[in-house]
Write a structure and sequence with these properties.
By secondary structure, this protein is an all-alpha fold. It contains 14 helices and no strands.
Length: 447
Amino acid sequence: MTRFKSIFDEVRPTLTLAVPIIVGHVSQMLMGITDSVMIGQTGTVPLAASSFGGNVFGVFYIVGIGLMLPVAVFVARARGAGRPLECGEYLRHGLALALAFGVIETVLMVALATQLHWFQQPPEVLAAVNPFFLLIGLSITPVLIYFAFRQFAEAMGRPWAPMFIMLAGVGLNVFLNWVFIYGKLGAPAMGLAGAGVSTLISRAIGAWVIFEWLRRDPLMRVAWPKRWWAPLSGARIKEMLTLGLPTSGILLFESGAFTAAAIMMGWLGAVPLAAHQIALSCAGTTFMVSLGLSMAAGMRVSAAVGAGETARLQPIGYSALGLGVVISVFFMMVYLAAGQLVAGWFVDDVAVVALAAQLLVVAALFQVADGAQVIGAALLRGLTDVKLPAVITFVAYWLVAIPGGYVFGVRGTFGAVGIWTALAVGLGLAAVFLAWRFARLTRVRHS
């Protein structure tokens, strides 16, 4: 009973931190959903092209985000240990990494834009995707800067302002989509490229706004960097990369599986690719709830380590995993009951809606596994344990999910449903082994 109570006692503080983080992540996904809905009104090919371009961009985005996640881990740990000046130093070094990798990734995406034919997508999709891909590629640096600031704010216990900034960004993105996609207020009707313009402007403004808020917030002054232009610490950069690079690998292995799924969908045709985009937008949005919960739990684990409170590690972790399962089961029921209705909100193409509804049934079944695996990975990241989790995710996604999708979906007779079923199996394997790893490490720490 005492053990159960210790787990239950951690639910409320985790939720208190997680709710604004969840809303912020859902807001980020809403940008993609509003893009899909508004682009879908211009036709199936632009929607398919946005799926392809967005998924390729997503690989670079995930790598960059993985490199920024150490900001939250080390800031939370320094805060738990009562070292506010060290919190500011981790922010400063995180921003340096954001700028450096943002520039590198932008150059790589500009080069890749000339070679998108490598992915063997339908000719009509390749003809439409390039301007959109270049525009969202230019947004990677402001995205990483914003994320570094956001990680710092959340780890310092100030998650609400980033949430409101994200919500405002969604509203701005919708307005700019209306202007540039459809040609309103005197602007030319740019279609898919207009969505790229809107995304770039919204993300750049978001990065500027969160910087201004943090700079002016009196509660942040104790941890705000005092010497922005001081030489960087090679040891601190190495420490952040030691955690960030494997974390990027973990995220890349999962996102790479979904990118590979999108590419395989393109081999099946524009309709499966568009249906994949709809189903992924829906599943990705509900996944943001588990992702926000995972980040809150990871920060709390990291803070507990910094404070030397190792007895709280398992209660924090198990309460987060339990919450994730409950939330995921709820979304599973929604997709099973209303998949067809939800798919119809995106596009009028009957074939696309029918296939998307089938994929949402599969998404319903892997909601629990998807939530558990992301929470397990975040808990281990809070312990700075990332090397073996990287191996686990590589095996689950690249040795099971991707080959399984090709065998059953592309070469076999199951098509799009086969590709998504293989993804579900990979997620399930990752969930089991990441949770087992956390239980084993925290059990050792108690002994």
